[in-house]
């Protein structure tokens, strides 16, 4: 039973399900004379991150990590605000709206863009913005 841990215990059949280092599951009879159950350490979080594929990192975020490209289609460019020093694009994304400036990244410093999407360029003369996702550029026009 070394290097394994008990996942569940069936009190009716007096057996336990455990996993081995290889990830195999097997049932074992518990010793009826044993008064306590031996617990084994759970894997460290870093081991889980390396060995397991994780899904959505933030369960409360509006988007998931796999659908950002599909989320680009629901971004609406509403307008622009420009000063002598800075330009902003007014966006609507899902139920949120507000201003975003060049260089902002979705999920990092704005929630008005899908995760990992970067606002690369605001082109007021052409009435469009350029977004980058996975080293590809996408343009959204008014």
Q: Can you describe this structure?
A:
The chain is mainly β. It has helices at 45-51, 68-71, and strands at 5-10, 15-19, 25-29, 75-82, 87-93, 96-101, 118-123, 128-133, 136-141. The strands form three sheets. Strands 1-2-3 form a three-stranded antiparallel beta sheet, with no helix packed on it. A three-stranded antiparallel beta sheet has the order 4-5-6, with no helix packed on it. The protein has a three-stranded antiparallel beta sheet with strand order 7-8-9, with no helix packed on it. A hairpin with a 2-residue loop joins β5 and β6 (96-101). The longest helix is centred in the middle third of the chain and has 7 residues, at 45-51. The radius of gyration is 25 Å and the shape is elongated. The protein starts with a strand and ends with a strand.
């Amino acid at each position: 039973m070394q290097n394994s841990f008990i996942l569940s215990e069936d009190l009716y059949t007096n057996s336990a399900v455990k996993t081995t280092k290889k990830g195999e599951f097997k049932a074992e009879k518990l010793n009826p004379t044993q008064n306590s159950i031996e617990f084994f350490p759970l894997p460290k979080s870093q081991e889980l991150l390396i060995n397991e594929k994780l899904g959505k990192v933030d369960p409360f975020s509006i988007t998931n990590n796999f659908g950002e490209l599909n989320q680009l289609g629901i971004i609406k460019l509403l307008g622009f605000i420009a000063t002598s020093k800075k330009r902003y694009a007014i966006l609507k994304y899902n139920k949120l709206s507000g201003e975003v400036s060049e260089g902002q990244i979705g999920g990092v410093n704005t929630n008005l863009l899908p995760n990992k999407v970067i606002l690369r360029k605001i082109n007021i003369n052409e009435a469009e913005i350029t977004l980058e996702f996975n080293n590809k550029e996408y343009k959204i026009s008014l």
